[in-house]
Each structure stands twice: as structure tokens, then as C-alpha cells.
Prior knowledge:
Layout: H1 2-20, H2 26-30, H3 36-57, H4 59-64, H5 73-76, H6 79-98, H7 105-120, H8 128-163, E1 167-174, E2 177-184, E3 189-192, E4 197-199, E5 207-211, E6 213-214, E7 217-218, H9 219-253, H10 258-276, H11 278-287, H12 293-313, H13 319-334, H14 339-371
Antiparallel strand pairs: 1-2, 1-5, 2-3, 3-4, 6-7
Amino acid sequence: MTALLVLAVLGLGFANGANDNFKGVATLYGSRSLGYRAALAWATASTLAGSLTALLLSEGLVERFSGKGLVADQVLADPAFLLAVAMGAAAAVLLATRFGFPISTTHALTGGLVGAGMVLAGPANLGYATLGGSFVLPLLLSPFVALALAAGLYAALHSARVAAGISEETCVCIGGVEQAAAYVSGAGTVRLASGITLAVDSVERCERRYRGALFGVPAQSLLDRAHLATAGAVGFARGLNDTPKMVALLVGAGALGAGAGMSTTAVVMAIGGVLAARRVAETVSFGITPLNHGQGFTANLVTAALVTLASPLGLPVSTTHVSCGALFGIGAATGEARWKAVAHILAAWVTTLPVAAAISALAAAAAGALYS
């Protein structure tokens, strides 16, 4: 049973890396600041650093996702419970990754805890107060907080940029020659300096950059560095927040200590991201809203701040919910959000918990019968 649990948690770590690792650098890829491989390398390195740092800062999340307070201690000691949680969460995240939906591993783990607890502890014996206050509330509120902060911060930074005399220009290549053009928001067209308006196959193919300087430094160069730094900060925060949630299952069963569990899970997450991140990367980078460099920087700054703050406080927020919420906010502020894609993502979020709960319930019933 312990060996099966270790395999299930490693499967969850792989699925987590495939679904989540790219979310911090999605704005770099979406704004064409970096290509896919370079962005993925930065995501892998920054997430791995956060996962290893979690050894020092995330004891609260390890305890919370062991299920303590949600079910009785004797249920927590049952290897079937932790195995079922890991299997349900891993299956839900892998399924979403296969279809390119960015979902929350935190949400899937919560569903797994509920489903396995329903079977092995009984519906009447679940700690519903703990479930609501410690799990559901942070998960529900975090995307709305991120949306509001990103929309407000983007508006403030946009006004500051205009006041500083820094303008935005769009460049297109016509016959191999680069020409400056004005980006026409929401129209799929650009306007050349000559006044001619051109339709483009995809506005994302155009290079949108800033002209001017801030404190004597070219604005675009300064923003590129800041954008890269905030993308790394999101990856670091994600590793810091997500890794302990999975390791909690190993620690709870006594399968591995916190140090070995964190290190092993971190490596498996990195492998999952390298091998299987592409589908979700395309959805998050291009599916939600067109991005320029400043918008990507703003979304990352909000995401990194919220997720990093949540980790030492033991709050199980979802990096997926926060990062997508920030992108929703940018899209709402610019009027360019692709609401059909947003609706599909929200539908995937709504179904994550019940799907993970159902799979975990079935796994708990099977594992309980096998173990007994």
C-alpha cells in the first residue's frame, strides 16, 4: 500500500508539473518575449527552486493537506485514505492536461480529501467547518482578488506610462522589412505610419513594444528584465505553494520524510513540465487574452505577490486560479478578454472538485476492501 501511495503521489507530481509549471511564464510566451523552449527552461528552473525552498517555509501547508481537522485521526492513519486522495487528484489533473485545461491541483487535492473522507469516515464525520474555512474560502476568493488587483494595477501603470511619455508601438514585417504600425485594439488590424490599415492573420504575431526611456534606461529593455523576473517569481511561488500539498500525503503515511519527499516531488514536477506542458501552455498564453509586455508583467506581479504571501500563512490558494484570475483582469481592463475561452476554463474549474472526489471515493472503496 505504501509503494502504491508513493507511485500515486509521483504521478500527481508529474501531472502538476505538466499542468502548472508553464503558468508563470505564459505571459513571456504570450507576449513573444521568449520562445516556448526558453520560457519552459525558465519555468522549470524557477519552480524547482521554489519547491526546494518549501523545505524551510511551508510546514503549514504540509499539515493542512494531510487532512488533519477534516477527518478523524484514525482515518488519517489509514493508508487507503491517502492513496485514494492521491489517485483522485492525479487522475483529475492528468485528464485536464490532456485536453489543455489549466486547472488547480489544490482544487483536485481538496476534492480527493472530500471523496476519500466521505467513503472512509462517512459524510457525517467530515469537518465541514475546516473544509469551508481552510480550503474552499481561499480557493473561491483568490481569483476574484487577483482579477481586481490586476485590473486596477494595470490601469495605474498604464496611466503612469502615458504620463512618463512612453508610447507603445507595433511592428510588422512586410516583404521582409520591419515597419512600425499602430495596434488597433480588438480589430485584428494594424495601421501603418502611411495611414494604410492592414488586416493580420493573428495580432499576436505582431511585435508590440515600448518606445521611450525611464531614468535614462530604454523602457523596453527595463520592462523585459522586470517581466522575466516576475515570471521567475511566479514559478518560484508556485513551487513553494504546491509542492508541500503533495508531499503531505507522503509524510502523513510515513512513506518519506519531508526532505526526501520535497526533493523527489520537485524533480518529478520538473519532468512533467518538460514533457507535457505544451497543451496548457497554448491555452494560458494565447487563449485568454492578447498580451503585450506591460500587461504580462502586471499579471505576473500580482500572481507572484499573492501566492508567495499565501505560502508561509498556510493558505491553500491555487496558482492556477490566481494567475488565470490576473489574466482575466487584464483582459477585462483592455476589453480584449476571450470570454468563450474563459467560460471553458471556469467550467473546468467547477468540475475539478467533484471529478476528483468521485475518483477518490471509488479508489477509497477499492483500496479499503483490498487493505482489509
